Amino acid sequence: MDEPPSKIQLIGVVGPCGSGKSTLxxxxxxxxxxCRHIAQEHSYVPDMWQLITxxxxxxxxxASFAVSTARAKLDWRKKxxxxxxxxxxxxxxxxxxxxxxxxxxxxxxxxxxxxxxxxTGKP
Length: 123
Hints:
The chain is α/β, with parallel strands linked by helices. The protein has five helices and four strands, in the order E-H-E-H-E-H-H-E-H. The chain has one domain: Rossmann fold (3-Layer(aba) Sandwich), CATH 3.40.50.300.
């Protein structure tokens, strides 16, 4: 039996360092979804996420400077985080779902995405 259409569409995940992208992708893949962690935060090309990956669904995970720095054990300045947010602004404006992960566990984030996918019939 073929995979149901709801799990065929590619899901792209973007966000600043430390927002939980890799963890979310891993969780979604365990549920049978095809996902890509898109490193848009490192690109100077605003629509790289579209050009390279072309996801059917785009999920944006947000994390504050303090949380990103603590989670990823980064030694960077506020302006570095702000630059990542600037580089992500195009993707954020096109995201199907935006989640602020600061006060959420990885399981909470995954469940919010799964609920969104079920509620909207996406992918």
